[in-house]
Design a protein that fits this description.
Blueprint lengths: L5 E6 L2 E6 H6 L5 H20 L6 E6 L2 E7 L2
Antiparallel strand pairs: 1-2, 1-4, 3-4
Length: about 70
């Protein structure tokens, strides 16, 4: 995934827009939030490499937090 790929993140009832690079570097100052979003991104990247029809988003629970990650066009 390109570092400049834009995403819409939804976590803990808040949504915001960011990039893959910012997610990898950490989007906040709380470990569990950063880890949850980073793990979601990793799974999405893996799914996009391995699926015939690559997904453009993913929702699930990581680090005990519900995360939704949507690719922006």
């Amino acid at each position: 995934m390109k570092a400049s790929q834009k995403f819409r993140v939804v976590i803990k009832g808040v949504h915001f827009y960011t990039t893959a690079k910012q997610i990898r570097n950490g989007v906040g100052d709380q470990y569990s939030v950063n880890a949850a979003i980073q793990k979601c991104l990793l799974v999405l990247e893996t799914m996009r490499k391995n699926d015939n029809i690559p997904p453009v988003g993913l929702a699930g629970t990581w680090e005990g937090l519900q995360v939704q990650l949507d690719m922006c066009v």
